[in-house]
Design goal:
Length: about 200
């Protein structure tokens, strides 16, 4: 089994990376081949909405480090996506990754039937883990309704890509302490257990 973990946090060795690494560690202990990608180390650009994907579905036309990574994702059995929460949502690096998944989308009118097509050309049946770290506590003391949409939106990603399973790991109350997840033995144990279950 091959498992890839993508950490979108710009902070080195902080909570999101800790969670993604713990999931990968659990998977590796069960014999999986694992790979960690830190988006902060890559040159990545936002989606241009250029419709270049129509030339070849699954191949983004942009010349940056994210284009080959998107193609690589199709070869993994499980995908671990990690994001911190900034302004009640995923951070910019994570959103750029998700927007570029647009390259797998086929949409428009079927030339033979005229019916509208909306489907992702991404290998289905992969297992997904979403690791989410936020500074605020749970339940949130300020504007709790601002988090209601987050899980729903995050679910859209693996569901669109035909996931076989979806698991969430939530880390709350980190504030700006980059070692908060590492110091939570129960949380790390859970993340490793989720990884082993892949």
């Amino acid at each position: 089994m091959k498992v890839i973990g993508i950490n979108s946090s710009p902070r080195k060795n902080a909570n999101t990376q800790t969670l993604v690494e713990a999931v990968l560690r659990g998977a590796a202990q069960k014999g999986a081949e694992t790979r960690l990608v830190n988006l902060r180390e890559l040159t990545i650009h936002g989606c241009l909405g250029c419709e270049g994907r129509k030339k070849q579905l699954g191949h983004c036309v942009q010349k940056d480090d994210l284009s080959p990574l998107l193609r690589d994702l199709t070869g993994y059995d499980a995908i671990v996506l990690g994001t911190p929460v900034y302004w009640f949502h995923v951070n910019a690096q994570f959103k750029m990754l998700v927007d570029r998944l647009y390259s797998f989308l086929e949409s428009g009118a079927d030339p033979e039937t005229g019916e509208e097509i909306f489907r992702f050309h991404f290998p289905s049946g992969k297992k997904f883990v979403l690791a989410v770290s936020r500074g605020d506590v749970e339940p949130a003391s300020m504007l709790p309704q601002f988090y209601d949409h987050l899980n729903e939106w995050l679910n859209v990603i693996p569901l669109s890509l035909g996931a076989a399973s979806i698991e969430f790991i939530h880390h709350y109350g980190a504030e700006i302490n980059r070692k908060a997840a590492k110091n939570d033995a129960g949380l790390i144990e859970k993340a490793e257990r989720v990884g082993a279950g892949l």
